[in-house]
Design brief:
Layout (H helix, E strand, L loop, with lengths): L2 E6 L3 H13 L5 E6 L12 H6 L13 H8 L1 E4 L2 E7 L4 E6 L5 E5 L2 E4 L3 E3 L12 E2 L4 H12 L6 E5 L3 H12 L3 E6 L10 H14 L2 E4 L3 E7 L2 E7 L2 E4 L2 E4 L3 E3 L2 H6 L23 E3 L6 E2 L6 E2 L4 H15 L13 E5 L2 E7 L2 H6 L4 E9 L10 E9 L5 E8 L7 H9 L4 H4 L16 H12 L3
Parallel strand pairs: 1-2, 1-7, 2-3, 7-18, 9-16, 10-11, 10-16, 11-12
Antiparallel strand pairs: 4-5, 5-6, 8-17, 13-14, 14-15, 19-20, 21-22, 22-25, 23-24, 24-25
Helix pairs in contact: 1-8
Bound molecules: flavin-adenine dinucleotide.
């Protein structure tokens, strides 16, 4: 009998797994059914802020492959608007509900890929029926927000609740659409993915764009007029709003997994081994935002929900299901974000992570420029390095600057991945020409400063 693979979740991780499995196994050998409760498959959630801002004009530009492509080119049977409601490991069967007509579906599986993504944190006050409050997790969410922004009366005042990278990107998107934007954040700085000193630079740049930032403020509810949101109630008083965007972080979407008895780790994500198998549950794989993964610097299991990991993990699962051999070696927390012309990059540990992991360390901040100082367009760049004391091993790096800042983090990520010391990094053979870097690249300047701080 033909083996049947069932995929739960039709975006990055799930469809990467399905297509990799198909590349290695023909239709007579492997039947593939993918369930997706939304309206879209394989879309770029990462592109949502740029569609909301209008920079990307067509919603469909964010869709890499639609169900027809999966059916025609990959022989994958995608069932859209169908939500898996139960996984029975003994019967090897999933139960699903068709969201448009309420019909129930049962599907047998030999192999299962669990790729349900993450669930946005939703405060109680956003659960009511006040209109104009939006999460921003899926393309369906984004479509609902776009419709609200385009409708009459056109919103003019937006409040973004939560200053993580998604909140920051959404604040930029709404400013670009011409709204007055207030970002409310409970912590002392937005952009908690970098240390506070670096986040301060981001906040300053956002204020320069016209975003009003209120930090150290909590939101307790909303006010409404005729069923539409009119203000956000905060510990510092009400903030008028015609639209509210939530960016309060996410957690792994594991309700179904837990109910089925799949093992969850301390971070809350599904546990997987390095081949993306769920340990102790033969034939079941998991990938993407719903799993926890190894942090290569601390050795801890972490939940770092990023598209870059979801695609790689899905691919690894699919190669293995297809009969190949692939492993996912863990993450170091590399991420980049743009806030208008400001670029932010980070990799490895922040100071607080290094402290929590028990490292002794030094941290340095180096100011330099993206190009030779005399070359037109030279702009300042701030690089922070965190290095273990006394070994000098690079533990973390952050960059805030303008053009060419964000992707410089990749050189630091490679150094960190390979456990280089800052001493070794000072000799790195990085490219130099005046349009691209000063003769001492900002990365090298920061490494030299870290070596000095270590007292070498
Ligand atoms: C606004 C925004 C910007 C982002 N920007 C970046 C970025 O710049 N860089 C980066 O690396 N990452 C970014 N991310 C994160 C990235 O989008 C996610 O990490 C990635 O989409 C995770 O892929 P996934 O397949 O694991 O989960 P998802 O993309 O969440 O897909 C899971 C799918 O499963 C479906 N599903 C869930 N439960 C069920 C069920 N029971 N039955 C059927 N279907 C179900 C969901 O509808 C969803 O489509 C961003 C995310 C957002 C929201």
């Amino acid at each position: 009998m033909t083996e049947r693979l069932v995929v739960v979740g039709g975006d990055a991780a799930g469809m990467a797994a399905a297509s990799q499995a198909r590349r290695r196994r023909g239709v007579d050998d492997l039947e593939i059914v993918a369930f997706e409760r939304g309206h879209f498959t394989s879309y770029s959630a990462c592109g949502i802020p740029y569609w909301i801002s209008g920079l990307v004009q067509e919603r469909d530009a964010l869709i890499a492959r639609d169900p027809a492509t999966f059916r025609d080119d990959f022989a994958i049977d995608v069932r859209l608007r169908t939500e898996v409601t139960g996984i029975d490991l003994d019967r090897r069967e999933v139960t699903a509900r068709r969201l448009d007509d309420g019909g129930e579906v049962r599907e047998r599986f030999d192999t299962l890929v669990y790729a349900t993504g993450s669930v946005p944190n939703q405060p109680d006050w956003a659960d009511g029926d006040v209109e104009g409050i939006f999460g921003i997790q899926t393309l369906d969410d984004a479509a609902a927000l776009r419709a609200w922004l385009d409708a009459d009366p056109t919103p003019t005042r937006a409040v973004v609740v939560g200053g993580g990278y998604i909140g920051v990107e959404m604040a930029e998107a709404l400013i670009q659409r011409g709204l007055a934007v207030t970002l409310v954040e409970r912590a002392e700085q937005p952009m908690a993915t970098v240390d506070e000193d670096m986040a301060g630079l981001v906040a300053e740049a956002m204020r320069g764009l016209g975003v009003e930032i209120r930090t150290g403020v909590t939101v307790s509810g909303v006010e409404q007029r005729d069923g539409r949101v009119s203000a956000v109630v905060t510990s510092a008083g009400p903030v008028p709003a015609d639209v509210v965007v939530l960016g309060l972080g996410v957690r792994p979407n594991t309700a179904l997994a837990a109910a089925a008895g799949l093992p969850l780790g301390a971070s809350g994500g599904v546990r997987v081994d390095r081949r993306m198998r769920v340990p102790g549950v033969p034939g079941v794989w998991a990938a993407g935002d719903c799993v926890e993964t190894l942090h290569r610097v601390t050795g801890m299991s972490v939940h770092i929900p990023l598209g870059t990991h979801a695609n790689k993990q899905g691919r690894v699962a699919g190669i293995n299901i297809g009969g190949g051999y692939a492993t996912f070696p863990g993450v170091i927390g590399t991420a980049v974000t743009k806030v208008c012309d400001l670029e932010v990059g980070r990799t490895g540990l922040r100071e607080r992570d290094a402290t929590a992991a028990g490292f002794e360390f030094v941290s340095v901040i180096a100011e330099s420029t993206n190009r030779a100082g005399y070359y037109p367009g030279a702009q300042s760049m701030t690089v922070k390095l965190i290095a273990e004391r006394p070994t000098g091993r690079l533990l973390g790096a952050q960059i805030v600057g303008r053009s060419e800042a964000a992707k410089r983090i990749d050189a630091l990520a490679v150094a960190l991945w390979n456990e280089m010391t800052v001493d070794e990094m000072t000799a790195l053979d990085l490219g130099y020409a005046p349009p691209y870097a000063p003769v001492w690249d900002p990365v090298l300047i920061a490494a030299r400063k870290a070596v000095d701080a270590l007292g070498r």
